[in-house]
């Protein structure tokens, strides 16, 4: 119950009537409304959350810090950070100070939008306002760095945690930072952090001197203390053997994840003995937890199980590459990786410079250049050649066979170009590109930096030379950098609905698959070019069909159904607005040449979302 209301003195005759009863009624009404806002925030229903908030004023109720934090969360979940900041200002005008959870929600908001400098400034603002960041807050920041590939900012905050904020990095912080360092090929820095974790004793370290005397932690004994090493209160080791065991398990699991990251970086650099050692450590851990594992119930348990399975797949993938012992050649693949930033560039040279800077900052291009004896200028030249004057990607250059510094123009007629948008970790697009070698070239476009790195890693390990990677918001990258009429087929697998239930009323400023985005796809498709969409979400897929069917250019329909009626693995379930919608797994007739599962396919299958729906349309 919010303190403000609880601490108000009771007047009058008590609950039977009078002011005390009215105060109690008001308090419980305010709590109910706050709960409603929190629920609407979870479902991304911003307008309804705002309308509910207005009831406070209408009914003369006092919003609490929880009411404001729920409303701020509603704005952030609808990808409206400026709106969230306005609520925070209003809250301050009400005389309520923002707490660490409100700052954490805002940090998440900035992280989602890739505004990592603003997130960094917010951490300083917290401190200036006397709110100490906790592990959840910094981990929200590190997650943002991981999603957007900001190694320098993560390193800066990591170094400040202990020295300035007396905050001990927990296993989650360490995992995030090591993953980032691994992407940047910073093997020595990873080694240092691993040593640090090895030495750390999670049972006896308590917040670098912040401990509040010997006052006991209320949550420790029941095993529900979530502060870990940063808890300010005393953890009585005798009182909770379960908590002790859990913290040890977390440490061992973090070590295994860090070893996997180390193995990956070592493989990328061809440092086979280091890779082998790290892989063995990770393997030993995942084998020992395979049966029964770390447990967990419900969706959390399923998620843990999937994480273990994915880690085992990762071990196999690295082992396979390791056993070949062929020198990795990341340079040519880095030259096909375009990490577009959030700020638009206007000049070719400027964009080439940005691409190189980003690769140096977060994909270890500097280290790779040293190994192949090339300079950053060579890399910039290569990127400049791949861009047209209008900053569009030139397939003829990107996929030219000679990549070291200079590129040749292909003399043969260009191969068809295909593209997957929202590629996730790239399992699907790599399989398709490999099946299309010599037949088509592919582009994979993904927003999250860490996922682009996962695709990059698959591209290097599988030597997928007919694939190029684009990092960025498809809503910006497609119109700015993809040549009009260049694509023969575009694919989107398991797009994220604005709200996961596919609720029609959910709002998000970051929703990608709108009418205007489909118009952009229409522009980049060749005549008769195809678009195939696969989803597990029946309501959402119907909404997409409708959006596409209603798109008009001077009264002409822009997309038409492309069947196919001969689909073998699926049955036609509906023809909606003239577009055939199928239930089942897509096959080669809709461009899925190679049968394979993607990460989200496996995730939904685990959660018993077994139905799959798809449709294919073509440019009219
Ligand atoms: C549900 S996942 C599906 C990933 C993959 N297709 C699969 O099947 O595993 C959706 C992906 O879309 C990416 N995404 C979301 N919005 C995007 C945008 N505006 N531009 C590019 N990618 C986006 C997300 O980062 C995420 O990886």
UniProtKB/TrEMBL annotation:
The keyword Manganese does not apply. A zinc finger (C3H1-type) spans 211-238. Signal peptide: none annotated. PPR repeats lie at residues 64-98, 99-133. InterPro entries: PPR_rpt (IPR002885), SAM-dependent_MTases_sf (IPR029063), TPR-like_helical_dom_sf (IPR011990), tRNA_(Gua-N-7)_MeTrfase_Trmb (IPR003358), Znf_CCCH (IPR000571), Znf_CCCH_sf (IPR036855). The keyword Acyltransferase does not apply. GO terms for molecular function: tRNA (guanine(46)-N7)-methyltransferase activity; zinc ion binding. Residues 211-238 form the C3H1-type domain. It catalyses: guanosine(46) in tRNA + S-adenosyl-L-methionine = N(7)-methylguanosine(46) in tRNA + S-adenosyl-L-homocysteine. Residues 1-31 are annotated as: Disordered. Residues 1-13 have a biased composition (Basic residues). This is tRNA (guanine(46)-N(7))-methyltransferase. It comes from Symbiodinium natans. The lineage of its organism: Eukaryota, Sar, Alveolata, Dinophyceae, Suessiales. The gene is trmB.
């Amino acid at each position: 119950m919010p303190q403000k209301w609880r601490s108000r003195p009771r007047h009058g005759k008590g609950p039977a009537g009078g002011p005390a009863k009215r105060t109690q009624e008001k308090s419980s009404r305010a709590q109910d409304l706050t709960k409603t806002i929190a629920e609407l925030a979870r479902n991304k229903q911003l307008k309804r959350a705002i309308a509910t908030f207005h009831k406070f004023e209408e009914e003369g109720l006092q919003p609490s810090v929880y009411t404001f934090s729920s409303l701020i969360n509603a704005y952030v979940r609808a990808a409206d950070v400026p709106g969230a900041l306005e609520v925070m200002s209003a809250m301050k005008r009400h005389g309520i100070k923002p707490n660490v959870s409100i700052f954490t929600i805002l940090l998440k908001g900035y992280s989602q939008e890739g505004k990592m400098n603003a997130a960094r400034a917010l951490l300083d603002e917290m401190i200036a306002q006397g709110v100490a960041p906790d592990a959840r807050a910094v981990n929200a920041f590190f997650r943002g760095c991981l999603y957007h590939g900001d190694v320098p900012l993560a390193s800066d905050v990591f170094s400040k945690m202990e020295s300035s904020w007396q905050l001990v990095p927990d296993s989650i912080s360490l995992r995030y930072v090591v993953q980032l360092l691994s992407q940047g090929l910073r093997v020595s820095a990873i080694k240092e952090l691993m040593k640090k974790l090895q030495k750390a004793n999670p049972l006896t370290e308590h917040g670098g001197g912040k401990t509040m005397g010997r006052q006991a932690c209320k949550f420790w004994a029941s095993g529900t203390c979530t502060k870990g090493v940063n808890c300010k209160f005393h953890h009585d080791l005798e009182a909770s053997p379960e908590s002790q065991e859990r913290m040890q398990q977390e440490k061992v699991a973090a070590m295994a994840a860090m070893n996997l990251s180390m193995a990956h970086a070592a493989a990328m650099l061809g440092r086979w003995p280091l890779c082998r050692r790290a892989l063995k450590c990770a393997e030993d851990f995942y084998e020992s937890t395979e049966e029964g594992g770390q447990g967990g119930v419900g969706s959390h348990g399923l998620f843990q199980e999937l994480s273990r399975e994915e880690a085992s797949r990762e071990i196999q993938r690295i082992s396979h590459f390791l056993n070949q012992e062929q020198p990795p050649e990341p340079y040519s693949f880095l030259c096909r990786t375009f990490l577009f930033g959030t700020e638009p560039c206007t000049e070719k040279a400027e964009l080439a410079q940005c691409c190189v800077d980003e690769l140096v900052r977060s994909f270890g291009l500097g280290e790779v250049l040293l190994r192949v004896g090339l300079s950053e200028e060579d890399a910039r030249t290569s990127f400049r050649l791949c861009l047209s004057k209008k900053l569009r990607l030139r397939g003829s250059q990107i996929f030219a066979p000679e990549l070291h510094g200079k590129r040749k123009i292909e003399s043969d007629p260009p191969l068809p170009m295909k593209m997957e948008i929202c590629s996730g970790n790239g399992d699907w697009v790599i399989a398709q590109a490999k099946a299309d070698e010599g037949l088509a070239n592919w582009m994979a476009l993904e927003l999250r930096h860490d996922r682009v790195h996962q695709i990059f890693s698959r591209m290097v390990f599988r030597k997928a030379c007919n694939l190029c990677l684009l990092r960025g918001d498809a809503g910006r990258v497609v119109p700015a950098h993809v040549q009009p009429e260049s694509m023969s087929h575009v694919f989107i697998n398991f797009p994220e609905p604005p709200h996961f239930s596919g609720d029609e009323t959910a709002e998000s400023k970051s929703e990608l698959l709108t009418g205007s985005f489909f118009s952009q796809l229409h522009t980049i498709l060749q005549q008769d070019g195809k678009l195939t969409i696969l989803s597990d979400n029946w309501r959402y897929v119907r909404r997409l069909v409708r959006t596409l069917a209603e798109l008009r250019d001077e009264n002409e329909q822009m997309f038409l159904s492309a069947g196919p009626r001969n689909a073998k693995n699926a049955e036609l379930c509906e023809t909606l607005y003239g577009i055939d919608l199928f239930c089942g797994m897509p096959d080669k007739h809709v461009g899925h040449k190679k049968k394979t599962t993607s990460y989200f396919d496996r995730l939904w299958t685990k959660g018993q979302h077994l139905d799959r729906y798809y449709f294919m349309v073509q440019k009219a």
